[in-house]
Amino acid sequence: MASLITRKLDEAVKARLRVRAAQRGHSLEEEARRILTEAVADEADTASGVTLPEDVAGESTGTSIAPTLKARRVLLVIGGGIAAYKSLDLIRRLKERGAAVRVVMTEAAQQFVTPLAAGALAGQRPFTDLFSHADEFDIGHIRLARETDLIVIAPATADLMAKVAHGLAPDLAGAVLLATDKPVLMAPAMNPHMWAHAATRRNIETLRGDGVAFVGPNSGEMAERGETGRGRMAEPLEIVAAVEALLAPLRPLPLQGRRVLITSGPTHEPIDPVRYIANRSSGKQGHAIAAAAAAAGAEVTLVSGPVTVADPPGVNVVKVESAREMLAAVQSALPADVAVFAAAVADWGVEPQQQKIKKEKGGAPPQFALRENPDILSTIAHMTRGRPRLVVGFAAETNDVIANAKAKLARKGCDWIVANDVSHEGGVMGGDRNTVHLITAAGVDSWPTQSKQGVAAHLVARIASALEAKR
Ligand code: CTP
C-alpha cells in the first residue's frame, strides 16, 4: 500500500519524504508506512479504535528511563496464548529503552491481540504471513531472521517451543526461528501441567542445548479459574532485564577475549580411496563444548573429524579426516589460551594405497602393517613455546577409570583430564548423556550423569574460573 501511495504523491512532498527517509535510514516506502502507522496509533490511543491494557495506554513514554537498548534491534515473536496481551506492554517497554522493535505474530497470537494494536505500539506493521508476496518481496523471512540483534518469543507457548525444538517451520515464526543466526530468548507461558509434561521438559533441554535462553515462567495464578502453579509468563520488565543482559551484558562474558581450540569427533584413517579405519565417536561432546565456549564469549576454533552433528553457531569449524590432518589443523590454529582435546583420534593408521585394493580370486586377504598416529594432545601439551595455558584431555576408559585417567594425565602432560566412563549403560559414544570425572592437580570431581550439553557447560565454567584465577 505504501508504494502505491508514494507513487501518487506530488513531487515536492515526495522530495521531502525522501529527505526524511534518508535521515532516518529508511526506504521511501518504509518511511511512508511509519508515518501512516503512527497516525493510526495516535488515533487508536485517543479514540476508541484499539483497547490497550490500562498500564500500557495510561503511561507516558519514558521521561527518566535510561536508553539501555539504544540502537538495538529486537524481533518480537508473539505466540498464541492469553499472555499475549502482556507482549503489547513489552513492545512499549523495549521501545522506551531505545530498541527498534519488529513484530512477528503467529496465527494463534492474532486470536488474542490484534496486529493493529501490536503495529501501533511497534511503530510498524507486524509480519504475519510466510506466504505473503508483499512481505517476502519487501523484507522476507531471511532478512527478518538476520536483521535483528535478538529474537524474543513471548509468550512462548508449549506448541511453539515444540516446533522450534524440532526445527519445524510451518509458518512465518517457525521459518524465522529456523533461519536465524541471532540469540533467541523465550518467555514461556502455559498451563502448569503443560510446563511439567515430559515432552515439554525434553523440548526445553533440546532448546537449551541449541543455545536458547529462557526467562520465566513464574509461579502463580493462571488464567484458568482455580489453576495455580508454574507457567505464568515473566512480567514485561523481567523480560526487558533479560534482553538487556543478553544484548549488553553488565559483566563481560566469562571467556570474552579468550581463544579456545577444541578437537571433536572421530578420525578416519584411509586404507585406500574407498576404505578407512574409524571409531564410534559422534562428536556430540566436543561440539557441545565448542558451543558452550562460544556462548561464553570465546573465539572458538573447532577441529572436527567426520561427523553428522551440525556445526555449532559462532564457531570457526575446520574439517579434517585423519589424525595427521587433525594435528596439522590444530597446530595452525594456535596460539590459543585453552585447548580441549575431545576427539577420539585413531591410534593407528596404515600406509594408504592410491588405488582401490582388489580382491584376488582365491588370494589371501591383504595384510596391513599398522603405524602409530601422532598423539595430538601429547604433542601440544609438551610444547616448550606457545603452549596453551590450559590443556585439557579426555580419557575414554572402560575399567579402572580414574586410575587409568590419572596415568594418562601424567603420560600426556596435560593439565586436566575429563575421564569418560565409556562402559556406562546406554553407551556414551553416540549417545546424548555422559558420566565424567574431572581430574586436576587438586583432585577428582565426579559429576552426575547428565546431558553432553550439561557436561560442556560445567567444563566451560571450570575453565573460565581457572583462567580467572591464573590472571
Ligand atoms: N589423543 C590425541 N591423539 C591421539 C590419541 C589420543 O590427541 N593420537 C587424545 C584424545 O583426544 C584424548 C586423549 O588423547 O584427549 C586420550 O585419548 P584416549 O583414546 O582415551 O587415549 P589413548 O591415548 O588413545 O590411550 P588408550 O587408547 O591406550 O586408552
| Structure class | alpha/beta
Cα separation of the termini = 59 Å
Q: Give the mean pLDDT.
A: 87
Strand content: 15-25%
What kind of sheet is the major sheet? 8 strands, mixed
Number of strand segments: 21
CATH topology of the largest domain: Rossmann fold
**How would you sum up the global shape?**
elongated
For the record, the CATH architecture of the largest domain stands as: 3-Layer(aba) Sandwich
Kindly provide the radius of gyration, computed on alpha-carbon positions and rounded to a whole number of angstroms: 27 Å
CATH superfamily grouping of the largest domain: Flavin prenyltransferase-like
The number of helical runs is 18
Q: Number of folding domains?
A: 2
Largest sheet, spatial ordering of strands: 12-11-8-13-16-17-19-20
Helix content: 25-40%
Q: List the quaternary state of the chains.
A: single chain
What small molecules does the structure contain? cytidine-5'-triphosphate
Low-confidence stretches: 44-63
Please give the CATH class of the largest domain: Alpha Beta
Summarize the structure in words.
A hairpin with a 2-residue loop joins β9 (269-272) and β10 (275-277). This protein has helices spanning 2-8, 11-24, 28-46, 54-58, 84-96, 115-122, 133-138, 140-146, 158-165, 172-179, 192-196, 198-209, 236-247, 284-295, 323-333, 376-381, 401-412, 452-470, and strands spanning 73-78, 100-105, 150-156, 184-188, 213-214, 218-221, 228-232, 259-264, 269-272, 275-277, 299-304, 316-319, 338-341, 348-349, 371-372, 390-397, 416-421, 433-434, 436-440, 443-446, 450-451. It folds into 2 domains: 25-49 and 67-247, Flavin prenyltransferase-like (Rossmann fold), CATH 3.40.50.1950; 259-349 and 368-470, 3-Layer(aba) Sandwich (Rossmann fold), CATH 3.40.50. Helix content is 39%, strand content 20%. The radius of gyration is 27 Å and the shape is elongated. The protein is built from 18 helices and 21 strands. With 471 residues, it is α/β, with parallel strands linked by helices. α1 (2-8) crosses α3 (28-46), α5 (84-96) packs parallel to α6 and α9 packs across α12. Residues 44-63 have low confidence and may be disordered. The strands form 6 sheets. Strands 12-11-8-13-16-17-19-20 form an 8-stranded mixed beta sheet, sandwiched between helices. The protein binds cytidine-5'-triphosphate. The site of cytidine-5'-triphosphate has 16 residues, from α16 and β16.
